[in-house]
Amino acid sequence: MLIARLIICVILLAASCSGISAASSRRTSRSSSTRRARSTETSFSLSGSFPSIFLGDEHMNNPGQQSALRAKLSMVLDTVEPHYSDALHRVHELREPKVASLLQELLLLTREGATGSGRHLEASIAPAGAEAAEEDAVGLRRRSDRETSSPKPPKPLSKPLSTLPSPQSLVDWSHKIGSRLAQLPAGTSFPVLRRLLTAVVVRAWLDGAGKRLTEVEEEAVSGLFVQLYMLHRRGAMNRGIMDYQHVSKSGGTSWCHAAQLNGCTTQRFDRFFVCGVSSFDDKVRWVDGAAHTRLTGAEPTRWYLHGTYRSEGAPGCASRAAQMLANRWTYYRNPLRRLASHLRFILLHYKRFMTAQVEEGVEKSADFFTTYAGANASFWSSVAPAISDNYFARTLLGEAAWHAPVGGITADTHLAPARLVLMQYDIVVPLESPTELTSRLLAFGAGWPVSYTDVHDKNITALQEMFDFDPSPHMPSSDEMDILYGRQQIDMDLYGLAVLIGQLDYLVYSTAAAAGVVPWDGMPDNVNPEEDNVNYRVACGLLRGPGGAWSSHMVHRRRRANGGAAGRETRVRRRSDAASLEETSRRDQTG
Ligand SMILES: *[C@@H]1O[C@H](CO)[C@@H](O)[C@H](O)[C@H]1NC(C)=O
Ligand SMILES: *[C@@H]1O[C@H](CO)[C@@H](O)[C@H](O)[C@H]1NC(C)=O
């Protein structure tokens, strides 16, 4: 079955995959520098913040909401299952021996674990040699790495994590977990573990009928959360590069722009390239060219690579993952809004493209107004299968699922693996969450004081003005939209998980902030992106890299483009040790 062959990687089927790294700055990382009290946050009470974060003020004492939250937390705990059933290979974090043994010991939640025998069960992982061999060759490995043999499946857990009781003593459990976390290697941020452990704490709070934790419990749990934040910070700093997943119409372009404003460098940033690394061959694959021709009689115009796989020459998942040593961060947006936004965007541009074909006398051309304009759900399903059917799930699962026909993505087969992929992103930012939350996620997750809220790229209103065309009247009728909306169940479920992940991370980051931890020394609370030298000051926040932002193997070129928020400054990155990332300035097809 196709899904069994899925591996963890970041494939950007929508628009682009990105290498973003620290900008040039004279400041080197001073990682020791973190505890600096911030007066505004001294009154923070950890468990006192649970109701407003997880239930919303109006639902604080609502038993129905509490049990819904409990069910979601159980779901989070069981997101690791596809790793043990071998539905997903290469869930790197869970194969890390110390993480693997902690999970085999059921997060120390069993009575046996709680007695603190200190027994570290042997993790059932692939022999170290196998992984090493694979990574050695990555520089040269190409797409054939999709077919490399899968690592040995891990031994299943004796019980699903959701079936375990809450810790008998949160204090003891926090201390024991803390000593295990202290043994974890640098270089990874352990997002899955962080979310599992936070979910355990919030569930324990629900078990206590939502009463505040005692002072000693607060202290022990806060210490654990600060430690989780330190792991994240260390992991991000050690890598110094971010691989973000661009989910179209969900803030992908703006993410790249925010990275630029925070002083990161990438291969290229402008309205069309959005941090794409050309050699990855990640292109826009929104429209099925053959269906377009069948339904309109016209030649395909743009973005018509649905059904066309990346070129054989482009680096595949394993080599890409190893080359990028990547963080994985992404925005999430309510899938129904994403869908409507996507259709409007295509209508806006296809009116131009198709009209141009007619005007240029292309032999096979068609009238936009009798084809795409006002088209029904079945038309859209044919020309844009991914867009009209669980786009997030397809994006998360990569090529193995992306090109499936409408209806080919099912909850039984795809939901659990997609959830586990989502859990592995270091930062997940739900676009519709309150600004206070999203700013915290960026400030503490990436160390970026210039937040997404300062950036509004691909603003549809501005585009409408530019092209003097309003696509709204040409959207499918509301009945037809309802058909399309009704199909996004798997994505809605994933979005629910994304929102909860955002809340769990917010809790950890807020605890760290209250303890006086700052992402990096000297980070301003906020900065005006219009200000001069902001990107030199911020230097990509946590992503300045282990050697500081002036790493010797990077050459930076600074170019100023005229006007336009989107292209103020572009830098080019070269890495002598990653020849395949060399930019080719090949024009991507994103615009
Ligand atoms: C949808 O529109 C196409 C024309 O594009 C038409 O052939 C088809 O019958 C319509 N389907 C429904 C269910 O209305
Ligand atoms: C989008 O652009 C319009 C017109 O240029 C502007 O009025 C509006 O505030 C912009 N929206 C956002 C979210 O930036």
Automatic annotation (TrEMBL):
<protein>
    <submittedName>
        <fullName>Uncharacterized protein</fullName>
    </submittedName>
</protein>
<keyword id="KW-0732">Signal</keyword>
<feature type="region of interest" description="Disordered">
    <location>
        <begin position="24"/>
        <end position="44"/>
    </location>
</feature>
<feature type="region of interest" description="Disordered">
    <location>
        <begin position="122"/>
        <end position="166"/>
    </location>
</feature>
<feature type="compositionally biased region" description="Basic residues">
    <location>
        <begin position="27"/>
        <end position="37"/>
    </location>
</feature>
<feature type="signal peptide">
    <location>
        <begin position="1"/>
        <end position="22"/>
    </location>
</feature>
<feature type="compositionally biased region" description="Basic and acidic residues">
    <location>
        <begin position="138"/>
        <end position="149"/>
    </location>
</feature>
<feature type="region of interest" description="Disordered">
    <location>
        <begin position="559"/>
        <end position="591"/>
    </location>
</feature>
